[in-house]
Amino acid sequence: MKLQGKVALVTGGGRGIGRGIALALAAEGADVAIVETDVVDNPYNQYGTRQINGYQAAQNVVKEIQAMGRRAIAIQADVTKWDQVQAMVQKTVKEFGRIDISVHNAGVINVTPVEEMSEEAYDLVMDVNVKGVFLCCKAVIPQMKKQGGGKIINTASIGGKNAFPTLAHYCASKFAVVGFTNGLAKELAKDNITVNAICPGIVRTAMWDLLADAWKQPGETVEQSWQRHLETLIPQGRAQTPADMGALAVFFATNDNVTGQAFNIDGGVELH
Ligand SMILES: NC(=O)c1ccc[n+]([C@@H]2O[C@H](COP(=O)([O-])OP(=O)(O)OC[C@H]3O[C@@H](n4cnc5c(N)ncnc54)[C@H](O)[C@@H]3O)[C@@H](O)[C@H]2O)c1
Questions:
Q1: pLDDT truncated to tens, each residue of the chain (272 aa)?
Q2: What is the rounded CA–CA span in Å between residue 132 and residue 126?
Q3: Which domains are present in the chain?
């Protein structure tokens, strides 16, 4: 096992891609803190509600990881709130003594043309996807410096390299994550802290349930829309999985000389 004795933190680790990353890190021996929240301020997310029940979902992932023989805890924190993000780092260090790998994966989406986009819809996407990544990085850097190094992994998207209509704000947020990741990597290069981003293609999670529904053509079911998008957007014609993203997280977590990268797992969509 490559991560025996290491401690990881994963935001948005209760479901979807974050869960896949948490399980992959645990399978390599890491103890894991799963960071999630049950309630958010703003309903413009893929769940369409303020009551998103992420912390509840995190309890199940904790059990799955404990069943693998690792230690795991669930922490309730909204990544857009500085006090909660600081507490998230403190609780993880109190429980496990350190943080070697910090995965900033919590993210939200809503679908709307810019002309009809409300400020609330725009603000939530920017708050969670960009400010959330910034706050989590800011909070974990002092701990990693104290330990003499660490691995920061942010979740961006193929939408962070090539944008999609009705997702201008979401894609802008993911372009921001790619740029932030590269800038921070250079800033921390001499501190033995690497900073990289995962760019997923299409993974069937709550996020894609929303997209397949919002992008249906007249007469199409959600399943038909999903299938059409796989075939038209992904050269390989098949979906990527949370386990794929977990494998990339393990790669970043175990390589000291890879930093500043935003790597796609997308079935061949992007050139870079
Ligand atoms: N699904 C895809 O195809 C895809 C593609 C590219 C990028 N992504 C990115 O992957 C990441 C994970 O998304 P997913 O597809 O697994 O969706 P998901 O809805 O399954 O997971 C997102 C998780 O983030 C949590 N979350 C939301 N707001 C939060 C907040 N303020 N504080 C703490 N936690 C919060 C949710 O509770 C949820 O469990 C996101 O950053 C997303 O933008 C997904």
A1: 999 999 999 999 999 999 999 999 999 999 999 999 999 999 999 999 999 999 999 999 999 999 999 999 999 999 999 999 999 999 999 999 999 999 999 999 999 999 999 999 999 999 999 999 999 999 999 999 999 999 999 999 999 999 999 999 999 999 999 999 999 999 999 999 999 999 999 999 999 999 999 999 999 999 999 999 999 999 999 999 999 999 999 999 999 999 999 999 999 998 87
A2: 8
A3: 7-203+241-265 (3.40.50.720)
What is the value of pTM for the model shown?
0.98
- For residue 207, the one-letter residue type is M
The number of beta carbons lying within 10 Å of the beta carbon of residue 113 is 10
- By alpha-carbon position, which residue is closest to atom 40 of ligand 1? 107
**Which residues surround ligand 1 with Cβ inside 6 Å?**
11-12, 14-18, 36-37, 40, 46, 52, 54, 57, 78-80, 105-108, 128, 155, 157, 200, 202-203, 205-208
Structure-token pair, residue 43: 């309903």
Instruction: Confirm if 164 and 112 have CB atoms less than 8 A apart.
Output: no
Q: Which of 35, 78, 204, 207 is the pocket-test mutation for ligand 1 (most atoms within 8 Å of CB)?
A: 207
